[in-house]
Amino acid sequence: MIAEQASADEEQWQPLSVWSVAYFVVSGFLALARNVWALFPVVFVGIQMDQLWLVLGIASVALAIIIGAVLQYLLFRFRVMASRIEVRQGVLNRRVTSLEFARVQNVSIELPFYYRPLQLVTLKIDSAGSSSDEIHLSALDRSHAERLRANILRQRIETESAAGAVEAEEEVRDALLISRSIPDLIIHGLTNNRAWIIAGGAAAVLGQMGDPGERLLGSLFADLGSDTAAALADQSIFIVMLGVLSLALMLVAVVTALSVLGSILSYYGFELRGNSQRLTVRRGLLNQRETNLRKSRVQVIASKEGWLDRVFSRRNLVFEQIAQGGNDSSGGDETKVLVPSVTAPQSLELSEAVMPSPDVFALDYQAVSPRLLARGLLLLGLVYVALAVAATAALSLPGFTLYALGVIASVHALVVFGRYKRWGLALTGHHVVVRSGLIGVTYLVAPLTKIQRVRLRQTIFMGRADLSHIGLQIASRTMEVPMLPGAFAREVVDRCLAYVESRRESWM
Amino acid sequence: MTFENPPVALSELPRIADVELHPVQRSHAWIGLVLWLVICAALAAGAAFVLQQQQPPPPEWLLPALLLLATAQCIRVFAYRRTLRYALRSHDMIFAAGLFWRSQTIQPLCRVQHVEIERGPIEKRFNLATLKLFSAGSSMATFAIPGLAGDDAERLRAFVLDYTTPSDEADSVTEQASL
Question: What pTM was computed for the model?
Answer without folding.
Answer: 0.76
